[in-house]
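To whoever is on call:

I kicked off a structure prediction for a single chain this morning and the downstream step that reads the tokens threw a length-mismatch warning. I double-checked the sequence; it's 345 residues and nothing unusual in it as far as I can see. Pasting both halves so you can look.
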Amino acid sequence: MKIADFEIGKGRTFIIAELSANHNQDIEVAKETIRAAKRCGADAVKLQTYTADTITLDSDKPDFVLNQGTIWDGKTLYNLYKEAFTPWEWHKELMELAKKEGLICFSSPFDKTAVDFLEELNVPAYKIASFEITDIPLIQYTASKGKPIIISTGIADDQDIKMALEACKSVGNKEVILLKTSSQYPAKIEDANLRMIPELAKRFDVLAGLSDHTKGELVPMVATALGAVVIEKHIILDKSIGGPDASFSLDEKEFKQMVDSVRNTEKSLGKVDFTLSEKALKSREFSRSLYVISNVISGDLVTEENVKSIRPGFGLHPKELKNVIGKRFSVNVEKGERFSWGLIK
């Protein structure tokens, strides 16, 4: 599967820098955050495309006031999203900047009008946010555009995931990536449950990755080791600027450290190959082999008192010790000589 020119699942993890609300309604902050994502080594930057009116109602009824132990408790949904949304008139300029910086840029739509708007901008992929996984009409409409679709599974059970995937398949779209997500902000490490990443891939026959809201780099590193093909993480220029997502976002220094850690994890994984590298072959010189450990003369018996398996590895293989014990030396041999078949009758 390709997103723009990036081949997903071919050994290099697709790292997405999530801009989200970390612009504080200042386009210059948004632009500099995109540049920071490039400096950090991200492959892509992701926006969110909604307005307060396209995602909720302007209501202060109890249903619309946050009260779930979140960092946003006490706010109405409308006021939260009014503060957090990325103005639609910015999208084209931000996407052009991302392209200039060599980053892939796409977005999460939250209703059909957002999908139509993003289609006009020719985005290369779509992301369905965790809380939208139950919006089957939205998923079906988004998938119908024929672009790769990334779906977060933070609030989903297996039936929700099946319905979302079926919605994509029903319009002929099989290019789906599922992301393990902990829909907590910030999320606790003990709630990451990263074993779900290979399970998602196996059970639903898709590519799988991680959308992470924990602090730091540990969870993305482990996810990479477990086969995550995508890592999504919030980026912010400076946490001191505040904003709805500041507490669980990584600043530029932290984000770069996370990217570097993921890349080093990739290097450490290597590949399944029992062929020894040139370095490994060289290291075999320090393995064990058979050596003569005391002076002997022609005709002496080979015993465990004069031939032993020791380091280094230039002599006969240790497995042959049982086959040479009891044989007789055919020449005089000094202590420290490599033992070989040529020394015995």
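Update from on-call: the warning came from a stale cache, not from the record. Cleared it. Sanity check on the structure: The longest helix spans residues 252-269.
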